[in-house]
Design goal:
The complex is a heterodimer of chains A (267) and B (407). Chain A has 267 residues and is α/β, with parallel strands linked by helices. Chain A is 37% helix and 25% strand. Chain A has one domain (8-117, 182-266): Rossmann fold (3-Layer(aba) Sandwich), CATH 3.40.50. In chain A, helix 5 (137-150) crosses helix 6. In chain A, 48% of the residues are buried. Chain B has 407 residues and is an alpha+beta fold. Classes of the chains: A alpha/beta (267), B alpha+beta (407). The interface between A and B is medium-sized, with 27 and 25 residues.
Chain lengths: 267, 407
């Protein structure tokens, strides 16, 4: 199997190896939660494929299952059934440590609440993923510095997160997500805690990263304006995909008429 | 990796300074308690050991026996004057015995020049010095010739010299005991306290014949208070004890079945009992101190559990960006270890200081050994790892998604 262990030294090689195939490949993915009230189904057999350099927005009302989907995509949670291949790795058969390694190596996370470590400097925050991939101290600092420069915050490298604005914190979070050169950037309501002006700045940054650097981006949002930055839109409703197509047509209409035939047959 | 983790541990501990210090305090108190208790316990053991050595080795003490009067009232050991200097000489002849020194004593006022001092005057034989393993600081012991010719000569203990002579050299000087002049032949080296806490140096030794014939007024002629016997080896002790009993029963013409009119005591056995007692006391002190170390360890565990709960979200973030379980485990374990090792270092310093201060204020002897410090240090570090392990494992076992969602 591919997944038993991903060699530490071959990060680049492992990432490039299947770069031509889909980054995300989901077939008939289901997720159920078991609570005292019984089994609650959240995702009902989803099929999604995301190719390298795509920019996908996942929209849906709260309770539609979009956060659950995001957690599964990010290897933070596992599906009840169905398959999920991340860059060709079947995550269902991987152990905790390998999943941690995949998160470190292939995925960059951007959260709604920024999730920076409050007591660490911006530089240390950005360098944190490199600590877990055993990069030397000098290289950590150099790469974190470079990433901070890319998001325009190089001069605040020694500040702490609570000394800068929310938009700046989100930029730091993006720098942290990108510092390990991931295949896939997952953003969960990245503009949710920001005003519209700052939100637009962040979205422009995403757009630039996607268009210039070719980074695959999957972002969750409930705002049509935010989703419009993406090229492709996936709409979720009650655990079903109700739209999968161009963001320009889908984002405008709350009741999309266009259903993907494949989605329809499996849901 | 470790460097970055140490740095993070430091940042987190610094952010919660007060809590870190209080947690450390538990360790500090535990370690310093262990060190102080060990120092006191070992000090006591050493004191007992020295007293035992000062007493002389393989000692038996023969005391005159109890007597039963006509009305059935029994007197205690030593009530009768059944032992004589001749008994002592006979005991000395036994093959298992290295020496036997009879002893009588009296308290008298001693005068030298303008100073006077009340002390115990012990009459004995030259064997006494070898039996008691007692060296001379100056001069020489009296001899059998002095014994035979009943000369007025005296050997002084250190305390007597200090009180009568000060810095003056007493050898060759004349002191007055009960108004009779005695020539000082020698001075004994200091022995310190006996097991019973008596100052052994507060004594004057003179030939036993001189006491019997010139000094004591109320003694039965030739009788002695006790005979100190040194046996040739520790293994020969039971045999020597039996030999002495047999010899004295024969000498005192005690019929078969009748009670002894003397008592033989094994001083070495008493000394061993005293040594065992202090060893047990020392162990008890150690155990009590270890309990405080345990309490300190539980304190660490408690705080680390709080810390894990508080930082659950942080753990989630770390896991999301690639921390493996063992990275999280190491991070929390490292904090526990740092706290216990720093607490330990401070505890060692405070413990040594405390032991020295206690010794300075109360005069208790303390012995601080490297081994006791190493022991405290090792135990404390082990306690840190042991009690840090559970919370760290709790943190490492969190599911990333649960940790991230934690509010």
């Amino acid at each position: 199997m591919i997944g038993d262990s991903v060699p530490q030294g071959d990060n680049e090689a492992a990432a490039r190896e299947v770069a031509s195939g889909p980054v995300i490949h989901i077939r008939n993915l289901r997720k159920e939660y078991t609570s005292v009230a019984g089994v609650i189904p959240v995702l009902h057999g989803l099929n999604i494929e995301v190719m390298p350099s795509e920019f996908v927005a996942i929209m849906g009302a709260s309770g539609s299952g979009k956060s659950t989907l995001m957690n599964i995509l990010g290897c933070l949670d596992i599906a009840t059934s169905g398959s999920y291949l991340l860059n060709g790795h079947d995550v269902a058969v991987l152990d905790r440590d390998t999943l941690a390694h995949l998160r470190n190596d292939l995925i960059g996370f951007v959260f709604q609440g920024f999730n920076l470590l409050p007591r660490a400097s911006l530089l240390d925050n950005v360098a944190l993923p490199l600590v877990y991939s055993k990069v030397s101290r000098e290289e950590r600092e150099a790469r974190a510095n470079e990433m901070l420069g890319k998001v325009g915050l190089a001069k605040y490298r020694d500040s702490q997160p609570n000394q800068i604005s929310g938009g700046q914190q989100q930029r730091v979070a993006i720098a942290r997500a990108l510092v390990n050169r991931p295949q896939l950037l997952l953003a969960d309501e990245p503009t949710g805690n920001l005003d519209s002006h700052t939100g637009n700045e962040i979205m422009n940054l995403f757009k630039e990263l996607n268009e210039r650097d070719g980074i695959t981006i999957v972002l969750i949002t409930h705002e049509v304006e935010v989703a419009a930055y993406a090229h492709r839109l996936v709409r979720l409703a009650d655990g079903h995909i109700v739209y999968d197509g161009s963001s320009h047509e889908g984002a405008m209409s709350k009741n999309p008429t266009e259903y993907s035939a494949a989605v329809h047959s499996t849901s | 990796m470790i460097g970055a983790m140490l740095n993070e541990a430091w940042v987190s501990m610094w952010a919660n300074r007060l809590r870190t210090i209080l947690t450390m305090l538990g360790m500090v108190i535990g370690v310093s308690a262990v060190i102080i208790m060990q120092a006191v316990g070992q000090g006591a053991q050493q004191e007992v050991q020295e007293s035992i050595e000062s007493m002389g080795s393989n000692l038996l003490m023969v005391l005159p026996g109890s007597s039963t009067s006509g009305g059935g009232v029994r007197m205690g050991a030593g009530a009768l004057s059944t032992l004589t200097t001749n008994d002592a000489e006979a005991i000395e002849e036994l093959p298992t015995v290295a020496g036997a020194a009879p002893s009588v004593s009296d308290v008298a006022q001693v005068i030298y020049g303008a100073r006077n001092w009340s002390t115990q005057i012990t009459g004995t034989t030259p064997s006494y010095f070898s039996v008691r393993n007692w060296d001379f600081a100056a001069g020489a012991p009296f001899t059998d010739t002095d014994l035979r010719s009943v000369t007025r000569v005296a050997i002084l203990g250190k305390t007597v010299v200090d009180n009568l002579f000060g810095d003056e050299n007493p050898v060759g000087k004349i002191i007055r005991i009960k108004n009779s002049p005695y020539v000082v032949l020698g001075v004994l080296s200091a022995k310190g306290q006996s097991l019973m806490g008596r100052d052994q140096d507060d004594a004057i030794l003179i030939p036993i014949t001189t006491v019997q014939r010139k000094l004591a007024s109320n003694q039965v002629a030739g009788s002695v208070r006790f005979i100190m016997v040194q046996v040739k080896s520790a293994e020969a002790m039971p045999k020597a004890e039996q030999d002495i009993v047999d010899l004295l029963r024969q000498r005192h013409r005690i019929r078969e079945g009748a009670e002894n009119d003397f008592t033989v005591r094994n001083l070495t056995a008493m000394a061993n009992t005293a040594a065992e007692t202090t060893a047990v006391m020392s162990l008890m002190l150690g155990i009590i101190a270890s309990i405080s170390l345990l309490v300190g360890g539980i304190g660490i565990m408690n705080i680390m559990l709080v810390s894990v709960t508080e930082r659950t979200r942080e753990i989630g973030i770390r896991m999301a960006i690639g921390a493996r379980s063992r990275d999280i485990l190491l991070q929390f374990l490292l904090e526990a270890i740092i706290i216990s090792i720093f607490g330990c270092l401070i505890g060692v310093i405070l413990g040594i200081g405390g032991a020295l201060a206690a010794s300075g204020m109360t005069g208790i002897r303390v012995v601080i050994t490297i081994s006791s410090i190493l022991l405290a240090f090792t135990v404390a570090a082990a306690v840190g790892v042991f009690f840090g392990w559970y919370p760290a494992r709790q943190a490492a076992r969190l599911r990333p998604i649960d940790a991230l969602r934690f509010q």
